[in-house]
Amino acid sequence: MDPRLCAQDVLRCSLCETPGPRLLCDICHIHLCEDCVGRHLLDETTEHKVVKFKHMGSIANYPICPNHFTQQCELSCKECDIPICVQCVEHLGHNTIDILKSIETKKEVARKDLQELEKSIYPKYLEIASTISVQKTDFKENHQKMIRALDKQSEDMHREIDTVVKTLKSDVDKMEFTHLFVLNEQEDELKCSINEIKQNMAYLKNLLNSADVNNLSTYKSRNAEFRRLPPKIEVSLPIFIPQKINKELIFQQFGSLSELTIKTDEYGYQLDNLNAMSHLPGRPLTDEPMIISEINTEYGHSNNLHSVSCLSDEDIWTCGQDNILRLYNLHGKLVNSIRTKSGNQPGDITLTQRGEVVYTDHEDRTVNIVKSTQTQALIRLKRWIPLYVCSTISGDLLIAMISDVLIQARVVRYSGSTEKQIIQFDGNGHSLFSSDDIRYPKYISENKNLDICVSDCIAGAVVVVNEAGKHRFTYTGPPITTKAPFYPIGITTDMQGRILTADINNHCIHILDQDGQFLRYIDECGLLDPCGLCMDTKDILFVAERETGKVKKIKYTI
Q: To the nearest whole percent, how much of the chain has pLDDT over 70?
């Protein structure tokens, strides 16, 4: 038997088969005895790094550059998100980092994805699957209840109603078939999704335990796909309605079955809030915020840019003074555009958890949602004008609005088109927000602790209330400043709970902690009239400049 194929054989040198080699080439992954080291190093077609066997893996296994085969990729291009070597001149001028730091970032993303899958997404899918079984049981019980009621009425009406009984029993069975078909279909889809999630979790666990840089560097998260939970099926169970017996009207008097209705609620299921779970390591602020890239748009002086919202880390929705919503990628390419249904200028824009565009239209007093290519009015107001909007962790919408007589302002929470909460006054009955015309913005954002943050520009303040609507604090600028009066416009929050607001008067961004304490400015990036703000999943800030129409991508954390 070939000793190399024997499972019980000792470890041997890969070149001469001497047993017990003490060295290893960490690049080629072969074992070497001391006599064969020199011969191996003479191979100049690639680099070699020979280490003692006990230090195996201590030297990074850099991938070979696909464009320069004699070079290893020891860098990562932050803009292109790919490994590069020192000879990749096409990436000159791009921001680069050591590939090992990039791998650590990828690992952190994988850890967060695994945590979200284990603690939120996977349990939610199991919960949804269990509700299907409950619905099936309930329907079977209801089915039997209706059959018994039909039988009792049948006995009372004797032979004359036999035909009617058979007809209605057939209707019941058809309803059961239809209902079970829908439930079984969703159950099958859930099983497939659950298996995919389990496989992805196993893959992530293997990935996190692996030192394979190639796999880690190419890892792409699927959690956005899994966050799109299946629709919730709501069934209105039919009931049997008996009637007084009349032989001349047997069929009509015997009774009838209410219709089986199956309603699909896109927002019926929601993921649990991971903020209450154990926190992953935070991202401290950097001493020198920097612009990673600039996105040139069609907006500008004659068509001011007002709002931005991240569809993904690669694409952002925008809106301004015309009646078109535009989707750009990071290279400034127009990917998609949507004209408002009314032809009016949109007030603000946000995205649902499913990536659907929601925008306000203050002229016709509606909040609209775009599903596929269809735009529909989700909310219609009568005595109020919707201004600014944000989507929440729970899937609700928060809308800042003013009364049509411009004397009141409030924030209202909606679940779909249903009003759930009104936030307008503090504990002393005083208005929380200033009430002026629609020219004075009140951008709105929800923080990770579920606080609601509103930038009230005419009041020169950021007003923050908790989830219940109770006033927490009002920020009116840092205690000591040499800058012009504080005039907050856009507002957003990051994964650390920090609040960022655009101060258009001073061409800068204020960063606060979640309790309203000023942390620092972002005022070194040459911002001009910063307006709308949004954040991607990596806490990268996007700043819309009103007059220039540019969107600047800024890294402000370590």
A: 89
In whole angstroms, give the CA distance from residue 191 to residue 186: 9
Query: How do beta strands 518-522 and 240-242 pair?
Result: unpaired
Closest CA to 165 of 251, 249, 260, 258: 251
How far apart CA 349 and CA 307 sit, in angstroms, is 6
d(Cα 78, Cα 215) in Å, to the nearest integer? Answer: 18
At 236, give phi and psi (nearest 5°).
Answer: -90, 105
Q: Tell me which DSSP letter residue 4 carries.
A: G
Q: Are 486 and 460 in contact (CB under 8 A)?
A: yes
Q: Tokens standing for 397? A: 């919408």
The three-point CA angle 518-391-353 to 5° equals 120
pLDDT surpassing 80 at residue 385: yes
Q: Phi, psi (5° rounding) for residue 233?
A: -95, 120
Pairing of strands 499-503, 508-512: antiparallel
φ/ψ bin of 308: left (φ > 0), alpha (ψ from -120 to 50), beta (otherwise): beta
Quote the CA–CA distance of 36 and 471 in Å, as a whole number: 74
Report the DSSP beta bridge partners of residue 265.
232
Cα 477 to Cα 492: distance, rounded to the nearest angstrom: 16
- pLDDT-derived band at 3 (thresholds 50, 70, 90) equals very low
Query: What's the pLDDT at 12?
Result: 82
The SS3 call for residue 430 is coil
Task: Kindly report, residue by residue over 342-371, the tens digit of the pLDDT.
Answer: 999 999 999 998 899 999 999 999 999 998
Q: What is the pLDDT of residue 542?
A: 97
Give the residue among 381, 376, 412 at the shortest CA–CA distance from 397. 412
Alpha helices in 99-161 (DSSP H): 99-116, 122-157
Quick: pLDDT tens for 145-185: 888 888 887 777 666 667 777 888 888 888 888 888 888 88
Q: What are phi and psi of 131, to 5 degrees?
A: -65, -30
For the chain, the C-alpha Rg in angstroms (whole number) is 31
Q: Which residues pair with 411 in a beta bridge?
A: 400, 423
Sign of CA dihedral 33, 36, 41, 43: negative
Q: Are 519 and 285 in contact (CB under 8 A)?
A: yes
Buried b / exposed e along 167-198 (16+ C-beta atoms within 10 A): ebbebbeebbeebbebbeebbeebeebbeebe
Contact 370, 357 (CB under 8 A): yes
The single residue listed with the structure tokens 């003074």 is 321
For the cut 70, the answer to whether the pLDDT of residue 130 exceeds it is yes
Q: pLDDT for 436-491, tens place per residue?
A: 766 778 999 999 999 999 999 999 999 999 999 999 999 999 888 778 899 999 99
- CB neighbour list of residue 535: distance below 8 Å, 6 or more residues apart: 310, 492, 493, 494, 495, 500, 541, 542
Tell me the C-alpha distance between 421 and 540, whole Å. 31
Q: Is the pTM of this model over 0.85?
A: no
Closest CA to 213 of 106, 88, 113: 106
